[in-house]
Amino acid sequence: MPHLPRSVTAISSREFADALGSVPGKIGLAISGGSDSICAATLFSKLRHDCHCFIVDHRLRPGSASEAATVKGYLDDLALPATILTLQWPGDPSTIPNIETEARRLRFQALGRACRDASIGTLLLAHHADDQVETLLMRLSESHGPWGLTGTAPVGDIPECEGIYGVHQSGLPSNVSNTATDPKIESGGIKVIRPLLAFGKTRLIATCMEHQSSWVEDKTNKDPTLTARNAVRSILETHTFPAALSKPSLLALNARLLKHEAVVRNETQNLLQQCDIKLHVQTGVLRVLLPANLQYCMPGSQLTTRADKRAVVGGFIKYLVKMITPRSMISVQQLSSAAFAMFPLLQDNSDLQTDSTNCGGVLFTRIGNPSEYATSLNSRISASETSSSWVLSREPPTKTNPSPCLDFPPSTLKSTSHSQDLQLFDGRFWFRLRNYTTVQLRLRLLKPDDLNQLRRAKLNATLIRQLNATLKEAAPGKSRWTIPVLICIPAEGGEDQVVGLPTLGVRLRDEAWANIDSQWQYKKVDLDFAKVATVTAAI
């Protein structure tokens, strides 16, 4: 049992309840068996809140199953329900490079699925203040700028689970309007919370000792040669740092950075809400109108320098990009070309303007006549007040970055599941498709030959006019080559046969659609943050 200074006190139930805050519904607890997670479990056992604990057996060393069972016994002593999740490796783990990274991915995916299946929307992780200090030192050593220096967030989406329906930013679709036939936009997903970030490691140990809770020590955490974090932890334990790099100083720095980030976020929201932003849900295309009297920062703002304004604009661009990009990771540093294109005054040479740029997986295109564009959109910004207007869409596929595909082989088995088999297509659309035809179906992005085939098909003239009008409005120019198209692949080879444009409701080959069961939703986006309007087209 470790010896602690008398000044170190256990975390009280009141302190923990205040740190936890109000969390609706059942909470999941990720339990490794170490003092950190056992402390969280001990404190949680004192609360009258429904929970379930999850222990992950990584199967990376002999005796891991026995150790997991021991940890479950500790939780039984606390009267907390628990389940052991045994990881399934795709091969021999000892042959996998970057085993720590892969173990983290599989661990979070197992935890995410377990939470989803148990109708748990929040997963508690036992990261603490010492973990935060290690993270800050690692980021300082990697020369992160101020926007990448902040530590672990107390609340966030579950990591490593993109594309798992009902786990990552999905599971609760809602109509974009009150009309039941309108498209749906996703919401939901598992959130992770870290209520122990304000408490040091010694207080967590003191809590376990006060309540006589047992825990296990993972010897691999003490090996400084195993991971970068272990090395930093070892240095912190064995070296004296200057005052500026002490634990209190680093935590104070993190608090200041978080406060500044909150100010930037508020100004970013103000900047977005001055603009007129419309999302075409069926095509994933954004139209953005910027007013002539745009204010980068509100009067009296703490943000006064050009660097501050660039930070606000960086947040502005990142928000827009995240709504329509196929990419899962976006950094502000990748978005400077779009920031300077839309806001040329932020450049050192504001005379350098561009009408088109690519960044973050998104194509930015300036519209030539913004006043006419504002009128055609029924914008809340008048034509005379419009400074510039833009169309934002996913970058069209290229030879080096081809269209993604989802294949749906024919099946005779009727499925009864209606949600968990949705798949994320192109990082933008969730699709469920059951193929009861006799041919292979494929979902990919629209090509010029597909559109020509649609126009040659025996569609009535009214439908063709509606399709052309919709493409002009909802997918102008190159953006139409980012619309999902469903095709069938002839068994004997030859040209792909267009079956339809599922997000636009365009269907060819009625005999095929009679044997296709499909559903789609747009990915999760925060419309309220920028007061984004949604636009749908009926064909």
From TrEMBL:
Superkingdom of the organism of origin: Eukaryota
Alphabetical list of InterPro entries matching this protein: Rossmann-like_a/b/a_fold, TilS/TtcA_N, tRNA_Ile_lys_synt, tRNA_Ile_lys_synt_N
Catalytic activity: cytidine(34) in tRNA(Ile2) + L-lysine + ATP = lysidine(34) in tRNA(Ile2) + AMP + diphosphate + H(+)
Record lineage: Eukaryota, Fungi, Dikarya, Ascomycota, Pezizomycotina
Gene Ontology molecular function, alphabetical: ATP binding; tRNA(Ile)-lysidine synthase activity
Keyword hit for Cell membrane: no
E.C. number: 6.3.4.19
Name of the protein described by the UniProt record: tRNA(Ile)-lysidine synthetase
Keywords: ATP-binding, Ligase, Nucleotide-binding, tRNA processing
